[in-house]
Amino acid sequence: MGLNLTAADYVYIVDPWWNPAVEQQAIDRTHRIGQTKNIFAYRLICKETIEEKMLILQERKRALASDLVSEDNAFLKKLTKEDIAYLFS
Predict the structure, then answer these.
(1) Which end of the chain has fewer beta carbons closer than 10 Å to its terminal beta carbon, N or C?
(2) pTM value?
């Protein structure tokens, strides 16, 4: 859902999504629409929940994508079929 928040000071993310770009977009939208001060973004995650597993999934995909777009071509040679399937899942 899209929101236009013109006076937000805080962003609370309590329901993470597998795609961290969506969360970052929510934070960025809050900051750019008429804001002149800093925004504080908080992720509230309980231990041993599906949300915690989502954060682990986000970090794993972020690391894999970061390695994929690096200048070192040796990484591409180390990718397994499972890595490629995981990246696009």
Answers:
(1) N
(2) 0.53
